[in-house]
Amino acid sequence: MMCESVQKLPTDWKNAYPETEWSNIAGFRNRLTHEYLSVDLDIVWNVIENYLPSLERTIEAMAQEFWNI
Questions:
Q1: What is the pTM of this model?
Q2: What is the tens place of the pLDDT at every residue in 21-49?
Q3: Taking burial as the number of CB atoms within 10 A of a residue's CB, which of 21, 24, 39, 59 is the most buried?
Q4: How far apart are CA 16 and CA 65, in angstroms?
């Protein structure tokens, strides 16, 4: 899961992109994992549509900056 992978990124990498709400990503993952019976699917879909594209761009930028991809 992408959220779990985000938690494993080095802190200095995340600090380089402070506009990304890293703690909210981790919290979202924890909610999906541990409270899955009370998850509102409309909220999940909203995250997919409105936040995932931005996160993807951030991860791609990190890959270029830190992994020289």
A1: 0.75
A2: 998 888 888 888 898 889 999 999 999 99
A3: 59
A4: 10
